[in-house]
Amino acid sequence: MADLNESVAAGACVQAAAIALGEPHRVVRSAWSIGTASVTDPDPAVDAAELRARYAAARDRPGAA
Fold first, then answer.
1. What residue segments make up the domains of the chain, in order of their start?
2. Can you tell me the mean pLDDT for 4-32?
């Protein structure tokens, strides 16, 4: 979980800059003073297989994007 607002956009920018500059992601992230991320563990109470099955059913439903 990112400890940063707009973490997806920031990550995309870091990736693009790393490629454009030919630098590792960590170098760009450090230069830009991008925040850190906290590691979270999966919730053992969640049935992951059932959740994946529900997602797949929704994804494969006719008319789904």
1. 7-60
2. 90
